[in-house]
Design goal:
Blueprint (H helix, E strand, L loop, with lengths): L1 E9 L3 E11 L2 E8 L7 E2 L13 E3 L4 E4 L1 E6 L17 H11 L5 H17 L2 E9 L6 H17 L5 E8 L6 H11 L5 E4 L7 H14 L3 E6 L9 H11 L6 E5 L1 H5 L2 H13 L3 E4 L1 H7 L15 H6 L4 E3 L16 H11 L5 H9 L3 H6 L5 E2 L5 E2 L1 E4 L4 H7 L4 E5 L2 E6 L7 H5 L3
Parallel strand pairs: 1-5, 4-5, 7-8, 8-9, 9-10, 10-11, 11-12, 12-13, 13-14, 15-16
Antiparallel strand pairs: 1-2, 2-3, 6-17, 17-18, 18-19
Helix pairs in contact: 2-3, 5-6, 6-8, 11-12
The structure holds zinc ion (ZN).
Zinc ion binds next to loops.
């Protein structure tokens, strides 16, 4: 199948030009930028039903084209569990306990349905790569322990070629007894993509980090670690993660999420941590929606926001993505798997709203997370699988102000999803005095 898109705005290349993008057999074959709108194609329609009538040259008349999104930190197993797993205090601790209890009566079907709902919503908003963390509690019934991983692996297969899903089970809190180790070894024989965990919550956090590295190195797996999701500046598993990364030659294979305590540290401590992270070639992901919700719950008066030092990390040359984390569960009661919405929240949380900042925000949900998780084979570069979306906005300012949901997602040589929302303002309303 061949298709040429005329007159797309591609702000991550140059916000002032229009681009024609030619696709052949699902791959980008040419890209051409120009200053003025060109004529020659059929008007593009975001309505799925109109697709059949369209020719192979479609004129998108200046709407924005972005590479597909990579959401590199989600919890698909927990998503949409809020109706049966509440969180009255709004703390991380209650969220963990509430979901842990509720998960014991979840069925395969229930979990799979919730996971699918989240993946389909993410896809409709433009996401084609997901790294999902999955709970792996070894002290529960065996069926409960393995349910999340089994369902995530099935889901990965069902969605292959539409959404790439990487499955990263979270190893349990350290220390481990014999049963823990038996189940962990069993897990590591499954076809998982890497491992994670939240060692800062362990009884022995630093040894918990070392244990994670032992398993990862033994099985040659990448690591993605929930790191110091705490308001306490003394929480510093990040330093052990740095040491272990260098010791095992794991540079470039370790991604760290949250880094909330880094936000609470004084400047000298923070500079030291950031310098060491750079030495160990760590990559990072901030999860601002969940952390704005969960952190600072013990504070009165001035409430800490819990979001890490995004701009300082980026200025030090550390790749930082932003991602969804939790969707409609006790850890974060909102969300729709829309990384554009998360980028906007990141703009608020990390004070990023300038002309260059918003382009950085777009990079933090597209090519940068794709590079962090090794998904650089698709996007909008010549020779790559064409993987992109059109969003009905005509400038970056409008994109971030409106977060339009009218989007068309392309990949695997076809339109995978089209979502169209009609907006009309009545004349009476617009003419009414305020
Ligand atoms: Zn998480």
């Amino acid at each position: 199948m061949e298709m040429t898109i005329l007159n797309a705005r591609v702000p991550i290349w140059n916000a002032d030009l229009y681009y024609n993008v030619a696709i052949q057999d699902g791959k980008i074959v040419s890209v051409d930028g120009h200053e003025h709108l060109q004529s020659g194609g059929e008007p593009f329609s975001f309505a799925a039903a109109d697709e059949e009538r369209k020719g192979t040259v479609v004129d998108v008349e200046g709407v924005i084209l972005l590479p597909s999104f990579s959401d590199i930190h989600m919890h698909l197993d927990k998503s949409h569990s809020l109706p049966f797993a509440g969180n009255i205090s709004g703390t991380l601790q209650e969220a963990i306990e509430s979901y842990g209890r509720a998960s014991q009566s979840v069925t395969d079907e229930n979990m799979k349905e919730r996971m699918k709902k989240t993946v389909l919503s993410a896809l409709a908003h433009g996401t084609r790569s997901i790294r999902t963390h999955i709970d792996f509690h070894t002290r529960l019934e065996e069926d409960v322990t393995f349910r999340g991983v089994r369902m995530a692996l099935e889901l990965r297969k069902e969605f292959q070629s539409v959404v790439d899903i990487q499955v990263f089970p979270m190893l349990p809190y350290y220390p481990y007894d014999a049963q823990d180790r038996t189940r962990i070894e069993q897990l590591l024989t499954m076809d998982i993509d890497g491992i994670g965990g939240a060692p800062h919550i362990s009884a022995d956090p630093h040894e918990g980090v070392r244990e994670l590295f032992r398993y990862a190195v033994k099985h040659n797996l990448a690591l993605d670690i929930h790191t110091d999701e705490s308001d306490d500046p003394q929480t510093n598993t990040i330093l052990t993660i740095v040491d272990e990364t260098i010791k095992h030659g794991y540079e470039g294979r370790v991604n760290v999420g949250h880094l909330c305590s880094l936000a609470a540290m004084n400047q000298k401590q923070a500079d030291d941590v950031i310098g060491k992270m750079k030495q160990a070639s760590l990559t990072a992901v901030t999860l601002p929606a969940a952390n704005l919700y969960l952190q600072g719950r013990g504070d009165k008066g001035t409430v800490r926001r819990g979001v890490t030092r995004v701009k300082e990390l980026r200025a030090a040359g550390i790749p930082v993505a932003t991602a969804s984390d939790n969707v409609c569960d006790p850890f974060h009661p909102f969300g729709r798997g829309d990384l554009l919405q998360i980028a906007q929240i990141t703009g608020y949380a990390a004070h990023m709203g300038g002309t260059e900042d918003v382009i950085d925000l777009l990079r933090m949900i597209t090519d940068e997370p794709a590079a962090i998780i090794g998904q650089t084979n698709k996007g909008i570069q010549i020779g790559q699988e064409a993987s992109f979306m059109l969003i009905k906005a005509y400038s970056v300012a409008e994109l971030f102000a409106q977060l339009p949901q009218t989007r068309a997602v392309y990949g695997n040589g076809q339109w995978l999803s089209k979502m169209h929302t009609a907006v009309s303002f009545s004349q009476t309303a617009s003419e009414s005095p305020v």
